Amino acid sequence: MSEEGFFNQLERIPRELIYAVLLIGLCYVLVYPVGLPIKVSGETKELYDSIEELPDDSVVLVDIAFGAGGMPELGPAFTAVMHHLYQRDLRVIVMTLYTEGPQMYDILVVNKIEPESSYDKTYGVDWCFFGYNAGGVTTMAELARNMRILETDYRDTPLDQLQVMEGVEDYTDVDLVITFSTSSGGISSPADWVQQWATPYEVPMACVVLKMMIPTVSPYYGTGQVDALIPGAGASAEYELLVNRPDEGLASTDALSVAHLIVIILVILGNIAYFGKGGGIAT
Amino acid sequence: MISTDPSIWIAAFFTVTIMSYAFRDNPLFKFAERTFIAAVIGHAVVMGIDSLRQFGFNKIQAGNIFYVIPILLGITILARYHSEYYWISRYGMAALVGIGVGLQIRTVPEANIVSQLTKAITLGDNPLLGVFTALTTFTVIMHFTFTTKKIHEKPQNVLPVVGRYLMLIAFGAAFGNTVMTRMNLLIGRLIFLLRDLLGLMGA
């Protein structure tokens, strides 16, 4: 085989072969984990500390801005952070502007975390869920000024009858907002929260986002408009370690490392083929 | 132990059929795709109607007749599908755009312009990072400045070239992050198949 033929073949590895190698590699480390060491990053510790430093009875507003599509990445991070919130004596208000938000709440909070049995928490006293509310950024902005525009929670219980809502009228009563978002510019994006809550009212804000959203949200983190920013991928495993609740985040860590190794090898092979053929320089 | 829960098997079936598209398009993938879209639309419609009930009809029934106004404005948008009366939809759209712009203009300049510019021109806690941020901002602006060709001629073209390489570094980071997110989605489904369906992973 000529040298150019070799590089041509290297550039045209069948995608079926790549997927097969990826699937076999991932399945193997998921069934037989290697147990690679995990170091808690400064950013993850920052979010952990921002919750840990809240005085008892503080109000935390949690926004579910992801659906089934974002669940593999944000689900483990959401679960780990919610575990932390329930481990503390905080008042947790969960809300969503996503139509799939109530399903995520049922799957992850009601069925998985089970705050009543796991932490002896009572719905309406320690936490509540507003349910789905339409309106996107309009609702978000209005909530900052008046939480009571929502008259009932998702069980149709009037907010006035919920002990957890006592004295919670507007943004001044909220000590921390945490948004779990897959939205870069749509409904309930971190940018919306920064524009409607964090910047005008200086409400402390934490964002847990898809790894690929980090470059778009980090400018807000750099300026201090967002106090903590972590990606779901990787950071969920670190958070599970911090709250001592090993789950899917930790289970996927080895697989993520293997996936990256395969992608890096492919990038190197692609570059070898590219430069081997002359690097695209016109001759 | 392999799951005997029918819902797990249905979820597994749709997971595998959707993944099969990675190899090539096929009828099973099309079936799963259409089922997914139908389910999402059905769910969204139900949630929308429930929202109308909660924030519209219930309030009107309670005597707040002003809630008729947003409902009427919403209905006007449907006129878009009528060839003769499509112009009526402009009222609804105008209300939507007006409210949206009003909300954004109040905070976006401060959140997206003033704060970012302040950060870009001040050194902050980390002077080295501050200088790097300012350099990146300046050189990238140079790269996209086409008012005069001289900027892109030697020897001063070093600034736009530096800006281009800095952007490429940012795009590389974005690509790496995107790959990680996509892999995480795949791993999430594999965990479901291996643990929940086949019982091959520990709890």
Quick take:
The complex is a heterodimer of chains A (283) and B (203). Chain A has 283 residues and is of the alpha/beta class.
- Largest sheet data of chain B: none
Largest interface: A-B, 53 and 46 residues
Task: Indicate the structural class of chain A.
Answer: alpha/beta
Mean pLDDT of chain B: 90
Structural class of chain B: mainly alpha
Separate helix tally of chain A: 12
Description of the molecule:
The complex is a heterodimer of chains A (283) and B (203). Chain A is elongated, with a radius of gyration of 22 Å. Chain A has helices spanning 3-11, 15-31, 42-52, 71-87, 101-113, 115-119, 137-145, 190-201, 214-222, 235-242, 248-251, 253-276; strands at residues 59-65, 91-96, 127-132, 176-181, 205-209, 228-231. In chain A, helix 4 crosses helix 5 and helix 7 (137-145) runs parallel beside helix 8. In chain A, strand 5 (205-209), helix 9 and strand 6 (228-231) form a beta-alpha-beta unit. The model of chain A has no long low-confidence stretch (mean pLDDT 91). The two termini of chain A are 23 Å apart. Chain A is 49% helix and 12% strand. With 283 residues, chain A is of the alpha/beta class. The relative contact order of chain A is 0.17. In chain A, strands 3-2-1-4-5-6 form a 6-stranded parallel sheet, sandwiched between helices. Chain B has a domain at 122-196. In chain B, helix 1 packs across helix 2 (27-61) and helix 1 (6-19) runs antiparallel to helix 6. Chains A and B meet through helix 2, helix 4, helix 7, helix 8 and helix 9 of A and helix 2, helix 4 and helix 6 of B.
